[in-house]
Amino acid sequence: METNFQTRMLTIEEGLSDAVQLLRQGEVVAFPTETVYGLGANALDPKACKKIFKIKGRPADNPLIVHIASVKDAKKIVREWTDAAKMCAEAFWPGPLTLVLPKSRIIPDIVSAGLNTVAVRMPAHPAALELIRAAGVPLAAPSANISGKPSPTEGKHVRQDLKGRIPLVIDAGKCSIGLESTVLDLSGKTPVILRPGGVTKEQLETVLGTVEIEREMGESREAFIPSKSPGMKYRHYAPNGEIILIKSADHKKAEKIAGWVAQKKSGNKMALICMEETKGLLSTNDLEGIDFLFVLGSVNRPQEAASHLFEALRSCDEEKINFILAEEMPEEGIGLAFMNRLRKAAGESGFVDPGKI
Ligand code: AMP
Ligand code: MG
After folding, report:
1. What whole-number distance in Å separates Cα of residue 305 and Cα of residue 298?
2. Is residue 171 a part of any domain in this protein?
3. pTM for this one?
4. Sheet bearing 292-295, strands edge to edge
5. Ligand 1 atom having least distance to the Cα of 38
6. Domain contains 23
7. Which residues line ligand 1 (CB under 6 A)?
8. pLDDT in tens, 295-338
């Protein structure tokens, strides 16, 4: 693999023809979507797709999502376009919903990690749609970060992780959703959410009726149940610092935050990621003790707050924070996806030995 690329950052207007040429040559190009930035390659070219795994350090058993720009193209890569798929596409495409369906033979095994299903999504970002259309092939694209790190929600995050490893990032600033797509398995009898994301369970239920949620890694190690979605078992979204979770419904959360801050040893750097309302509960003294404060937004606008989570985690790394107090969100609506990512970022328990702080 070539690792000395210059990694140009271009807008879609500037970079479209180069991006298309690179994709046709079997190279990998990063591009914006409304969820997070994707690391795309021609999904029909196994050699190109292999590069994605190498560039990211992604385990080979974690399949890729294939991005298309029309339902007609989705139908070409699946064996069966079911009624449920039709209803979901009508209601949520283009948008942050990935459908898992039996795969057609044109999808190489490396894309589906040997599974007989394929994950397919039509992104809503105009630059993504333009690129897919111009390339004339479906694009396999996982998030454009080093495996294990928080997903990139800005072009500059992609460059931080992949500089020198890829030739081109199509840059369009911040992603509006900022959390990955919902992965919905439609290959069985009942629709199952394999990964919560930008389209909520509540929204899916209005279209499909009952929707189940795949049980996966629970609160404790003992509760670990291997998931049907292979990617869900890996460490994900992790910043360099250790995360301490603060319950959103805890009436004493301001005191708890103050307690953690007071306990901090000199030399350690502590960040607080919280909602606007929680910041309002803290005294000037508490706020002064915090080395880095990132306010996600208001509890009244959970979508917007959730869209800043990955940015907040990456900012903590830039600030060289070693302990991160992170406020939870209620697990409803987009809060389900937010908490899925935050828990994974925190590790299995979210427990930090107070003696270390
Ligand atoms: P990423 O592209 O990094 O956002 O991750 C893609 C997610 O989709 C991972 O959790 C994968 O396990 C999941 N996924 C992709 N293809 C399939 C498939 N055929 N069956 C089940 N899950 C899939
Ligand atoms: Mg990812």
Report:
1. 7
2. yes
3. 0.93
4. 242-246, 323-327, 270-274, 292-295
5. 2
6. yes
7. 62-63, 65, 100, 112, 115, 117-119, 142-143, 180, 183, 194-195, 229-232
8. 999 999 999 999 999 999 999 999 999 999 999 999 999 999 99
